[in-house]
């Protein structure tokens, strides 16, 4: 899957990137974040935004950790909503 990047004037959204479980922990997501942010800057964007799953208390969220390491700053938290089909 190609990672998505949405550009709108001075804003860029980093959307829909994933790494296969067998390839995680090798820096691919961090590299994708950096590449998409650099491309957004080259396109004239001044702000980059993303969203990821809010981890449970004490649970890790590698995607969030990667975004924080890339320099993004959390602005707010929202509830996670999960749709479940009727059994």
Describe this structure in words.
This is N-acetyltransferase domain-containing protein. This protein has 87 residues and is of the alpha+beta class. The protein has one domain. 26% of the residues lie in helices and 16% in strands. Strands 1-2-3 form a 3-stranded mixed β-sheet, with helices on one face. Strand 1 (4-8) and strand 2 form a beta hairpin. The relative contact order is 0.18. The model has no long low-confidence stretch (mean pLDDT 86).
Describe the global form.
globular
Major sheet: 3 strands, mixed
Give the helices and strands as they follow along the chain. Answer: EEHEH
Strand order of the largest sheet: 1-2-3
Structural class: alpha+beta
Total of domains? 1
Distance between the termini: 30 Å
- Rounded to the nearest angstrom, the radius of gyration is 14 Å
Q: Count the E strands.
A: 3
Low-confidence stretches: none
Average pLDDT rating = 86
Beta-strand percentage? Answer: 15-25%
> Helicity range of the residues?
25-40%
Q: DSSP helix count?
A: 2
Organism: Paractinoplanes aksuensis
Protein name: N-acetyltransferase domain-containing protein
InterPro entries: Acyl_CoA_acyltransferase
Q: How does the SSE layout of this entry go?
A:
Layout: E1 4-8, E2 11-15, H1 28-42, E3 47-50, H2 62-69
Parallel strand pairs: 2-3
Antiparallel strand pairs: 1-2
Q: Would you summarize the structure shown here?
A:
This is N-acetyltransferase domain-containing protein. The protein is α+β, with helices and mostly antiparallel strands.
């Amino acid at each position: 899957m190609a990672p998505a990047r949405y550009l709108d004037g001075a804003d860029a959204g980093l959307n829909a990137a994933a790494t296969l479980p067998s390839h995680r922990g090798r820096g691919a997501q961090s590299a994708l974040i950096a590449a998409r942010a650099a491309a957004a800057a080259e396109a004239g964007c001044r702000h980059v935004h993303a969203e990821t799953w809010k981890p449970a208390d004490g649970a890790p969220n590698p995607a969030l950790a990667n975004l924080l390491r890339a320099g993004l700053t959390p602005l707010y938290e929202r509830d996670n909503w999960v749709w479940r089909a009727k059994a």
